[in-house]
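User: quick one, sequence for these tokens?
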């Protein structure tokens, strides 16, 4: 009595296809590995150069193995003390409040546009698409925000102008359409109103889309320096990106922040250039990199559903 049956041999055509697929996977793995290194190595070089001395950079250029390590670039920027901490606090406040406020507006607006039974669906969709193609320009935007809304030299000038993005509304609206209509109809039959349906059913099912849009919005608020340069006059209200931009482009800011001319002269004489630029990049990029692991699991699903369906 045979305990095991003989496994039928795989046809030669299937074997050849299997070999081809293995070779293809190997090639793709190598390509993806090289691509990943191409993305990671420049960032690693930036971090290493930021810890290099100016003398080693002057002698050997940018190198993964500097001849001399130094913290001078970071010591130089941390001499600002309270100003740097205050700017980080403003940036964190703007990023957190701006992201939550933007998500709330975007989520509700996209949900309304996703409902085909809404009477003004077509009108508001056209108005939203119009803003993607045309805008009033910097002068008109500046006049509206400063004279009509009174946002000049205010932290809210860093939040409100970026609170609604038409592209994010379209992505989230498409994500809402992937939710089965039967669920919403069942909630309506059970007596749930529009707000109850939205907050209790639609939002929990939309976590991947909300996380994706939330991450993009967080990055946009964190990296923004232009609004601070445009609207903020008081240097104590500078977000960290505008502060570092000012430090990189002009030493006049350090002159105004110094206690006296001798301190300014010493700071200007010892100011790092190449390593200082890399240290600035690390100070700006590192905090936002720490947020990626919390949103990574939602990225693929959120972008796939939001970009394919609809």
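Assistant:
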């Amino acid at each position: 009595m045979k305990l095991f049956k003989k496994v039928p041999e795989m046809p030669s055509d299937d074997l050849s296809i299997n070999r081809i697929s293995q070779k293809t996977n190997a090639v793709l793995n190598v390509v993806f590995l090289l691509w990943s290194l191409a993305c990671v190595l420049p960032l690693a070089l930036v971090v290493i150069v930021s810890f290099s001395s100016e003398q080693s950079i002057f002698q050997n250029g940018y190198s993964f193995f500097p001849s001399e390590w130094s913290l001078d670039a970071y010591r130089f920027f941390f001499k600002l003390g309270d100003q740097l901490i205050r700017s980080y606090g403003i940036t964190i406040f703007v990023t957190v409040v701006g992201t939550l406020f933007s998500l709330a507006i975007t989520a509700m607006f996209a949900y309304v546009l996703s409902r085909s039974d809404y009477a003004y669906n077509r009108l508001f969709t056209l108005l939203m698409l119009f803003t993607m193609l045309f805008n009033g320009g910097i002068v008109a935007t500046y006049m509206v925000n400063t004279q009509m809304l009174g946002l000049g030299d205010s932290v809210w000038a860093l939040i409100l102008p970026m609170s609604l993005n038409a592209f994010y509304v379209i992505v989230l609206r498409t994500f809402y359409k992937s939710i089965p209509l039967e669920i919403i109809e069942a909630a309506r039959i059970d007596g749930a109103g529009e707000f109850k349906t939205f907050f209790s059913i639609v939002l929990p099912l939309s976590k991947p889309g909300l996380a994706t849009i939330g991450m993009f919005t967080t990055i946009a608020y964190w990296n923004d320096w232009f609004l601070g340069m445009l609207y903020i006059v008081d240097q104590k209200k500078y977000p960290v990106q505008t502060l570092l931009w000012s430090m990189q482009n002009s030493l006049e800011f350090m002159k105004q922040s110094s206690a006296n001319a001798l301190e300014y002269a010493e700071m200007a004489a010892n100011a790092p250039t190449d390593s200082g630029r890399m240290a600035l990049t690390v100070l700006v990029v590192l905090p936002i990199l720490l947020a990626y692991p919390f949103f990574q699991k939602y990225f693929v699903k959120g972008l796939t559903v939001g970009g394919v369906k609809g």
